C-alpha cells in the first residue's frame, strides 16, 4: 500500500473543503436538515453538476469520473468534517454499486449516468431495521431479514405486468426524497426462498413514504410502505444478491469510516482551538497537563481511525480484502470520543443547542445505532477472519 496521495486526490480534498467551508456552516447544516428534502438542494446541485461527485467512482463509460473507492472516501471525509447533509452515501455508496454489480445493461445505461451527474438520487430500502445485517456488517447475511416467507418484511410476487411488492421498510436513508428506491424483497415462498432487489420509481401507485424523526437530522430516514406496488427486477432472478450486498456493505462501511474520521478530526480541531482561548485561573485551559493528555489521547485515536479508513479504501479499490467493517468500528469509536470531549472541554457552552458540538454527538450516536454497534462490527470482522475458530493462529 502506498500511503501517499496523488496531486489529483489532493485537489479533490482542497476543492471540496473550500466549497464545504463556504456553503456548509453549522447553521446551514441545521437549516438543511429541517427542509422537506433533508438536504441542501443547491449544495447537492453544485456537488453533482459542477464537481461530478456522485459519479466519482463510476466508470467514464457511464459519464462518471472513473476514480476508485479511495477518491470517494476522501470526498466523504471532507463532507464529514462539516456533517454536510447530502444523499451521496445512499446514492453513490449503496445503490450505485448494486446497480453496477447486478443490473442489466439497459438498467445500468439508464440509471448510472443520471446518478453520475446528480440528476437522480436513490435509496436502498431494507425490511425492518436490518440494514447493517443485510450489508453483512454485524452478522452473517443469511437473508432472513427480508421476511423469509413469513409475515412481515417485503414480499414480491409475480404479476401479468411484472412484479408486485407488498410490505414495509424502516430506517431508509434519504428514502423520503429519493427519485429511485432499490427495495430488497423476499420471494419464492419456502420452496425457493430467496432475496431479490427491485427498482421502484418515485410516485409509483401504492408507494407511501414518511420521513421519520431521527436523532441526527443531517442523516434523514424514512419509513417506506409498499402496498401492491409495481416494481422492476434488478438484474436476473439467479443473481447472487447476498454476495453483492456484502460487497456493497464493505464499500459503504469504508465511506462511513472516512466520513466519521473527518467529523472526529474537525471536532478535535475546534476543541483544541477553544481550549487555547478559554482561560481559567488566569491561564488558558489548554495549558493544563490533564487537558493536554485528554486531547492527545483523542488525537491518537483519530489518527488510528484515519489509517484504518485509508487502508480499507485501498483494500476495497484493489480487491485485496474487506476491511471496511473494522475501519468503521474504529472510526465510530473515535468520533464518539472526540464529540464527547468537545462537549466537556467547551464548558457551559458545549451543552447548548446553539453550539455545534451536539451535532457531532448525534452523528456518532446515530451512525452507531444504524450501522453498529461497535462491538458487533468487531465481532463480525473477527468471525469473517476466522480469528477464534479452532486451530486459528492468534498473535500474542
From TrEMBL:
Q: Which SUPFAM superfamilies does the UniProt record give? A: Acyl-CoA dehydrogenase C-terminal domain-like, Acyl-CoA dehydrogenase NM domain-like
Entry keyword annotation includes Cytoplasm: no
Q: Which domain of life is it from?
A: Bacteria
Q: Which InterPro entries match?
A: Acyl-CoA_Oxase/DH_mid-dom_sf (IPR046373), AcylCo_DH-like_C (IPR036250), AcylCo_DH/oxidase_C (IPR009075), AcylCoA_DH/ox_N (IPR013786), AcylCoA_DH/ox_N_sf (IPR037069), AcylCoA_DH/oxidase_NM_dom_sf (IPR009100)
For activity, the cofactor(s) needed are:
FAD
| Record-annotated Acyl-CoA dehydrogenase/oxidase C-terminal domain positions | 254-384
Q: Which Pfam families does the record cross-reference, listed alphabetically?
A: Acyl-CoA_dh_1 (PF00441), Acyl-CoA_dh_N (PF02771)
What name does UniProt use for this protein? Answer: Acyl-CoA dehydrogenase family protein
| Species per Swiss-Prot/TrEMBL record | Streptomyces xanthii
Q: Which family does it belong to?
A: Belongs to the acyl-CoA dehydrogenase family.
Q: Which GO terms describe its molecular function?
A: acyl-CoA dehydrogenase activity; flavin adenine dinucleotide binding
Alphabetical UniProt keywords: FAD, Flavoprotein, Oxidoreductase
Residue ranges of domain Acyl-CoA dehydrogenase/oxidase N-terminal in the record: 6-118
